[in-house]
Specification:
alpha+beta, 133 residues
Length: 133
């Protein structure tokens, strides 16, 4: 009896997998605001955001400062070349976090989209959430 149930469940699973293929790749959300999937720093409501236009122009809002960048997005690859960061009036730990996040973004080499989550990976994986207001 148990082997019949197992075989039946396996058959249903196989049928579902063949009828609704997994999303192999969703398009990169150009022109959309992507919010870093992390809580705000203590004493602030700001969370880093990234927006990349179709032409590769990118805006990066860090913990304290903002930076313009140039991005090249392929089917599963991405490179981000940040511009110069203007001096900011923030606490030293936030300025250090800005530099760390900017360095991590400059090292990303791949991306993937899982629904409303965009993962950028390189030396470290960063998860961003698509802002759907």
């Amino acid at each position: 009896m148990a082997s019949t149930r197992f075989a039946c469940c396996l058959a249903v699973l196989v049928a579902l997998m063949t009828q609704s293929p997994l999303r192999a790749s969703e398009a990169f959300p150009f022109g959309s605001e992507l919010m870093l999937d992390t809580p705000p720093m203590h004493g602030s409501k700001r969370v880093p955001m990234l927006e990349i236009d179709d032409n590769g122009a990118a805006a990066i809002d860090l913990w304290c400062s903002s930076v313009r960048a140039q991005a090249t997005v392929g089917d599963a690859t991405i490179t981000i070349v940040p511009g110069d960061m203007a001096p900011a009036q923030c606490a030293p730990e936030r300025q250090a976090s800005d530099l760390d996040l900017l360095a991590t973004l400059a090292q990303v080499t791949a991306w993937r989209r899982i629904g409303e989550v965009i993962e950028l990976s390189g030396s470290t994986t960063l998860r961003f959430r698509l802002m759907t207001n």
